[in-house]
Known about the structure:
Structural class: alpha/beta
Largest sheet: 7 strands, mixed
Low-confidence stretches: 5-9
Bound molecules: pyridoxal-5'-phosphate
Radius of gyration: 22 Å
CATH topology of the largest domain: Aspartate Aminotransferase, domain 2
Number of helices: 16
Amino acid sequence: MNIQTNKMLRCPIDAETVRDKIQASGLASVGGASIRELVKLINEIEQSTGERYVRMEMGVPGLQPPAVGINAEIEALRAGVAAKYPMLDGLPALKHEVSRFCKLFMDVDVQPTGCLATVGSMQGAMATFMVANRTHKERSGTLFIDPGFPVQKKQLQVLGQNYGSFDVYNYRGAKLHDALEAQLQEGGYSSILYSNPNNPSWICFTDQELQIIGELANKYDLIVIEDLAYFGMDFRQNYGVPGQAPYQPTVAKYTDNYVFLISSSKAFSYAGQRIGSLVISDQLFQREFADLEPWYHSRQYGYATIFGALYALSSGVSHSAQYGLAAMFKAANEGRFDFVKEVSVYGTRAKRMKQLFTDNGFSIVYDKDDSVPLADGFYFTFAYPGMSGEELLEKLIYFGISALALGTMGSERTEGLRACVSQVDESLIVDLELRLKLFNAYFKEE
Ligand SMILES: Cc1ncc(COP(=O)(O)O)c(C=O)c1O
């Protein structure tokens, strides 16, 4: 990296300090760093320089947690729940509200029995891999419709399970059918996973695409893991009115072989409490698989998930957090808590930030859902002409901006970076604009 300090006089970040910190980090390549490695590096540069970065590398909520959740937790703690073990599958009131939530916000019927509390969606995914990927002993692992959240692949590695993936970028709309089927014919998978809206690209699958996924899951008898970490956050539509269309689109309209991972981290700004819900369809919950028996002493999918996977993983979820989450779902279900409106500020911010990037020589990488312009939301992806993602990330760090390389997230668009808008508040927008201008002025000339 050969940025000359004198050409960057107006940039507030000291280039030598950045260079030293990158070297000291021991990272083979900054562009290939994981989220947490980047967080550590940028923390250190900020500490040494005393300058604030425009931090877009990590997907953390940037809003206050809802009072309705906090108050319910406090009340539950005062009532003494901390002394008691919670039930493995979750608090009955929470199970009831999750079931109602699925009906009111997705128009999907699912019994409270299959609505389980988990320690974040992370645990919901882990438990699902442990059960879904053992339903057929002649098959193994998960096919990811990428780009995607890399920690789920780490979970499969830790479990010693197989996975495959393909970037959906070139296979939107009807083209998804043949691309997905080719992968399924080859792979011998037990499950398919995607997030919708998607982390990192913010693409949102159309109903046509969800239908393709659901029908192929039926044809090949696969379990679809629908990761709804950003529930309702496609702000082009208002999915936030209970019991009223439009509803959050879902594969459940096209298959009974599904589970949902419903995170509370982003949609409810509740990441710190590490609580989420795993929802298993009624049919899958009851279904028996002979190959589960050696693992879980039960053939039933639902039983194996609760008394096998969740029991072994953490034996339940923080009691008070369950009261908090139940209260938030109840308030949302009763129309007292418009969670979509609360987080819609991310959409407004993304629109502004994308404009700043495109005004300064950058392009948006994933920019359409089939033929429709992409939604503005929690993440967006960008590139700069003539630079690989790795190069771009390293150079941006010299200009006080951090992001994440798409190449680390199963994307073939390795020229791109992911930006998370949540930490870029009003006070940083001005810095972002100035730094992007400086960046563009510097590199346009070269
Ligand atoms: C796509 C996706 N899935 C799952 C998670 C994990 O969610 P949780 O915080 O509920 O464990 C995230 C968090 O960033 C995510 O982006």
